[in-house]
Give the backbone structure.
Amino acid sequence: MPKIYLVICTILVFSCQEPPQENKYTPPAEREFFNNKFYINLEVNKFWSRASKINLLDNKQINFDKINKKASFVINPKNIQDYIDCGKMNDELYVNYIERIFESSLTIETTIEVMPFNNSSEIEIISNYQFTSIETGTRWEFATNESKLILVGTPAYGAEPYRKCLSKNLIESKLIKALNSIE
């Protein structure tokens, strides 16, 4: 008789446990095309002269290459969720989920290209993003107006095996605003 009680108690204890939660990935919503090309009514040399004198991004070192009509810089922000959108895992932003489980990093290399256009300057801002899961080594590499799908190594059974990341265009927007102010 005591064995039956033991069996019944064991069944009751284990039947009261919550089933393990299945991870559910939700990809980011598609964004409209971000216009990262604009025109300023200044010829190229005058544009570079003025652009080199303003604080474009919180005192970030910007490398100006007037010969090739480019400027570039690299940042490694800690607040990754402000710069990229990789959807959600359950109710948590996927970039925060990756940081919590595996640690992560984000490197953003941004280039400002300036070309003469009549007596003005055509300016294009392109950011290249590299979001990395440090423990697994998984990398998402994408650029302004491009998204990246990556196949994850071990998705939950029956789960979507791809994860998608795209830019929120924060850097590009800030630069366009700053550069438009020099005209």
Notes: The longest helix spans residues 2-15. DSSP finds four helices and twelve strands in the chain. The chain has one domain: 25-180. The first strand starts at residue 25 and ends at 26.
